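Schema walkthrough. Field components (list of strings):
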Amino acid sequence: MAYKTDIEIAREAKKKPIQEIGARLGIPETELLPFGHDKAKVSAEFIAAQKDRPDGKLILVTAINPTPAGEGKTTTTVGLGDGLNAIGKNAAICIREASLGPCFGMKGGAAGGGLAQVVPMEDMNLHFTGDFHAITSAHNLLSAMIDNHIYWGNELGIDQRRIVWRRVMDMNDRALREIVTSLGGVANGFPGQGGFDITVASEVMAILCLATDIRDLQERLGRIIVAYTREREPVSARDLKADGAMTVLLAQAMQPNLVQTLENNPAFVHGGPFANIAHGCNSVIATKTALKLADYVVTEAGFGADLGAEKFMDIKCRMADLAPDAVVIVATVRAMKMNGGVKKEDLGAENVAAVHKGCENLGRHIANIRSFGVPAVVAINHFVTDTEAEIDEVMAYVDRQGSEAIVCRHWAEGSAGIADLSRRVAQLADSGMAQFAPLYPDEMSLFHKIETIAKRIYRADEVLADKRIRDQLHAWENAGYGHLPVCMAKTQYSFSTDPNLRGAPTGHSVPVREVRLSAGAGFVVVICGEIMTMPGLPRVPSAEQIRFNDAGQIEGLF
Amino acid sequence: MAYKTDIEIAREAKKKPIQEIGARLGIPETELLPFGHDKAKVSAEFIAAQKDRPDGKLILVTAINPTPAGEGKTTTTVGLGDGLNAIGKNAAICIREASLGPCFGMKGGAAGGGLAQVVPMEDMNLHFTGDFHAITSAHNLLSAMIDNHIYWGNELGIDQRRIVWRRVMDMNDRALREIVTSLGGVANGFPGQGGFDITVASEVMAILCLATDIRDLQERLGRIIVAYTREREPVSARDLKADGAMTVLLAQAMQPNLVQTLENNPAFVHGGPFANIAHGCNSVIATKTALKLADYVVTEAGFGADLGAEKFMDIKCRMADLAPDAVVIVATVRAMKMNGGVKKEDLGAENVAAVHKGCENLGRHIANIRSFGVPAVVAINHFVTDTEAEIDEVMAYVDRQGSEAIVCRHWAEGSAGIADLSRRVAQLADSGMAQFAPLYPDEMSLFHKIETIAKRIYRADEVLADKRIRDQLHAWENAGYGHLPVCMAKTQYSFSTDPNLRGAPTGHSVPVREVRLSAGAGFVVVICGEIMTMPGLPRVPSAEQIRFNDAGQIEGLF
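Field assembly_structure (string):
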C-alpha cells in the first residue's frame, strides 16, 4: 500500500473559506481579519467581548520523551480535535506556529501529518500571518534602542559589559551566535560583544504567548531587563521607553490565527516559544479564546511531558488561571522500542522485550501527570510496522499502572481512526475528576522549586548548583522575583540531563549551569546542560531542495 | 484655520472594502488575496491572464531637488490620481512601500499627506502585507547559506575575504554596520568581517521590483554574485542552490498590494528599493498590472528628477519596456526659496528674489525631462504661506522655459484642488506627444554611460575615476555585463555630488568612489560620495513616542 506524503495530502485538502470556519465558532465575518482566503486573525475586540462566556473543557496532549522515531504529538492533537468533532462535539485545537528558519535546515513544519493535518501547510511553514516577523522587529527595535541610548550619552548608566539583551533572527545562522558589533569608528558606536538567537528563543515570544491582552503585553514588555548598571541595578525596556513602540509592533501579532484541519475543523495556531529556555506552549490568548468558543479545546505542549506538560501546568496554567480537564500521553511502539534501547535502523523488526523495557519511560510520565491531579489516558499512535504482540505489551503495561491505553489510527484514517480515544477523552473531561494543582506554590523559594521539579518529575537525587547560582537566586528573591515559577532548560531526550539516558533513569543529579531572569515573561530560566539558541544549517540544507516545480507547487518544504 | 494632522485625517477615512476597490479595476474577489478588510494582493494568475490587454497611459511624478522644506511628491502623486478620477478618468496610482525601520527613527511614512493620502496609513508604516519581512528572510537565508557552505568544506572555493553579500534588517541599527561574525570557536564557523544594511538596500529588493514574474524573479536571484574565489571567479546564488528557496520565500511578496486613497481610488503600493544604490521605484509588476487595469497610471520615482526620473527612465522603463506619456515635476515655493539660499527658519517671509534664484533648479529639471522626449508640466504644490508674488514668479519663470506650471491645492482640498493639473496631464498623456527614449543605448561602454549622465543630467564638466575603477568596469564588460545600465548613487540634495551646492551648479566634477555589480538586479552601481546603507536612530527616536493611547489609537507614528 502506497501512502501519499504529507504535502501531497495537504495539497489535496478541500479547504473551506475561513469565514465558514469562523462561523462554526460564532465569529462574525467582520471580526475576522482575513489573510488570504484560508487564514484569519480573530479581532481583539471580539475576544474581549466573550469574557463572560463559560469555558469549555481543556485537554492537553503531551508525550513520552521524544526519540528520532517520532511520537506524533501534533498529529494526535489534530486527530483528536477532528475525532471529537466527528463524534458530535464542538471542539477546537490550539497548536504552536512553526519557525521559518529551521524549515530551511532539516526540519519540516509542525502542522501534523497524514490525514491529521492543519492547512494551509505551506503558508504555516513560511511567513504565515507574519507574527514571528513582528516579534523579530519588536525584539531588535529594543536592541537598537539600547545601543542608541549608550551612543547618545548613556544617561541611564548602562554597563556595556552587562547588556543581557541580544538580537534575534528567524534563520539558522551559526555565524551570528557570537559577534562583535559597532566596529568602524565613532559613528558606529562603542564596539562590544553581541549575538543573535533564533526568534522563537526571544523573551518577546514568551511574553506574547503569556500576555492576556494588549495592556498586559505592554506591561510585560516594559518589565524586560535588558542590562545592568555598574551598580548592578537593572535597566528595563520601560526605562528605555521602548515598550510602547514594541507593543504597537506586536498588536496585530497578538490576535490569534484561525485556520482549519483537513476535516475543516477550527484550529488556532498562535505563538511558538522555545520549549527549553521558554515554556513551549501556544499563546494564552489563543487557548482562552478557544475555550470561550468551543466545548472542548485540544492543545499540546513541547517535547515530552517532563518538560512540556510540567511547564504547561506550572507556568502557563498558573499564570493564565487555566486548569486542564484531561491529559493524553502520546506514545508509539517505535518510540517505546527506542526508549528500550533499539537503534533506529532496527525499528522494523518486532521486539517485544524492548517495548517492555521502553514502557518504563511511559509509566513515569503517567505517574507524573497524576501528580498534577489530572486524569490521563495513553494514545498509542499506530504505525504500519507495529505488531499485535508489541501493542498488547504496551496495553498490558499501561493497564498494570492503573491507567488505560487506546490505539489510534488517525494518521492513516483521520477522525474515523481516533473515535475510541475521542469518546474516552470527552468522558474524562466531562467527569469532573480533575483536581488540578500546580506542582509547587508561588511562595516556595526559587531553589526549592528547582529541587521539587528535579526530584518529583525527573526523579533525580539532587540538584547541583554552585554558590554563584544560589546567590543569584537569592538576589532575585530579594529583588521581588521569588514568586516566579522556574522554567527548566534541559535535554528533551531524557528525564535526566544526559540525552543518552533513555527509559526511566534514577539516581542522577541535575547540574544547574546558569540561571536567567525573564522578568517580562515572568519566569526564571534554569539552564541544565548545553542549550542551543541559534541553530546552524546542516551540510545539505533543505533550502537547496526547496523550489517551485513546473506545476507551481512548492517542493522540498516538508 | 486649524488643520488636522495627517494621522487624524487618515483615521477618519471612510474606507471601502478592498473588494470594492478591486472591482473598480475589474479584479474578481477570488483573485484578491485579502490582508484584513482594507488591503489585498492581486493574484499572480490574474495578472498573467491580463497580458494581452492594452496598456493605459503612464504618468511619472518627479520633483526638484529635495530640501528640508519638503516638496510633496507622494502627496501630489496621490492627489493627481484622485484628480484624474474626479474628472471622470479611470486612474490608479503606484507608489512605494514604506520601510519599517526609519519610522522608529525620525521619518514618518510615505503615504502622502493632508487630503491626498493612501490608507490604511498605520499598517503601511508597520508590517503592511509582510513584503519587506519576506525580502529580509530571503536575503539572510542566502547569507546563512554562504557561511554554511564554507563551514562544511567550501567546495566552491569561496575566498572569505571576497564575500560581497552582507546581511539585512529592517531597523535603524548603527551597531550592525560593521561586525565580526563567527566568533566563539569551531562550531560557529570561521571568524570574518560582515555587516548589515537596511532591508530597502538589499539587492533582493531591487530584484523584486524589476522582475516581471516569478520565473524572472528566480532567474535574477540566481544571478546574484555573493562572493569571488581566490582566482576572482564569481560565485552566484545559483551556485549555492539558494535561488529556489529564496523564490519560495518571495512568491507572496511578488504579488502587488492594492489599497485605496482617502477618496477611495485604487492605489498599488508595492516594493521600495533605495533610490541611491538602487533605482528607487515601485515594482515593475505593480506598474504593469496597473497599466492593464486603468486608463491612466500615476507613479513616482525617488528623490529629485536628476536621480529618480533618470533611473525611472534608464533602468525601470528600459528593462520593463515601459514608456512614460507625461511627466509632472513637483515644486513648492518654499523649496524654491531654499534652493535660492533661504534658511529653513526664514521660509515664512516673502522672498521673491530667492524664489527667482531657486527656479534655476526647476528649470534644469524641466530641460532634463525634455531630453527623454516626454512632455512635462510643473505642479506647484501650494502651501498656506505662499504669497501671490512668489507664485507668479515661478509661473513666469516656467513660462519663459517654454513650459507651464499649474498651482495645486490637493493637500488642503483633495481632488477638487488639483482639477486643472489633472485635465492638463490627461491631455498631454493622450496627445501622443511623447517620443520616449532612454538617455543612452545599451551598447555604450559603462564609463561612457556614467559620463553621459554626469554631463547631460548633472551638467558636470567631468567624471573622476581612478585606474582601479576603470579597470573594474572593463573587467565587467569583458565578463558580459557591459550592456547593463548604470545606477548612480549620489546625494539627492544637489545636481552635483556636494549636498550644499543647491540651485543649478555648473563646472563641477563627479568623483566615482566605488563601483558595485548588482548582477541580479541588472545594473552597475556607481557610488559618488558617502552613501549610508544602514541608518542610525537619532538622539530621541520617535520610538519613544510611539504607543497606543487610551482610545486604542496609535500615537507618534507620523
